């Protein structure tokens, strides 16, 4: 079999990818991302009848059977002679070609692609969206692929570390988010009927802004990384306790500005807010009992907090018609994306997002305005 890398850019490669369900035809490992960089994948395009001519070491695996199976120089690169495989399975079949004759591989290909066609009607189809701009270490794509219970048809990934926390840096990052989201939209258009499977590990303002771009009208499943287990969570059931019910407090006097604080992973102190926001403001405080890291990981907890945020912010905006909103958030990355999905720019005034830095004189610095 040929060892060329699988390229998503060509029509035939796209067809091979979709017909294979983004999985290895032999072991069914999902092959969606590259461990080092962004968009590429860990799959290989494999020839059933080997491409090289000759016999023995000079010929490709099973090349001597080309005439029997109607394979010529003209159609050897056709979809009929190609399988999508992971690198280990590709190597196994190539180095043990007597154990894997052509007929068996053609049958394996047909059986796998038939299974994929059935699954497309039964299971969710997904586009993986990885937004990781914290530290340069890339997401482990192999682990990621094994944690998604669906057919992965494409991946859009942004894994460039964000280090410029100046005003200009945030402006550039906001534009980068918008460019990244356009890639997500293009992939969604190419793969109709798919969910977005979002895996976020970036500075909070970037994730809230990303959530706003995705919006709550797009079908998306947002995962949360559990640092204790080193796994991504999205299951409905919280194994440790019941769904968290947050406490909601609203200061009595209305002002032109609304400050919203969401306290999940830790506490947000009043003085830090005053250091960041000039003039008087009304405050909406949403806080769980005993905020701590890893407090909110699961879907039901996230949905409760998201619902409370959406209900209260739009109710208060309708009653008081604020000219601006300042959002201070201390919580997990997945919930940050979901909070952002609640922000409708047509129904709310400008929303200012803040980045926390414990070593700065003013702990919260304005980052992005939606």
Automatic annotation (TrEMBL):
InterPro entries: HNH_nuc, SAVED. Residues 44-94 form the HNH nuclease domain. Pfam families: HNH_2 (PF13391), SAVED (PF18145). Residues 181-370 form the SMODS-associated and fused to various effectors domain. It comes from the Bacteria. NCBIfam families: SAVED. This is SAVED domain-containing protein. It comes from Virgibacillus salarius.
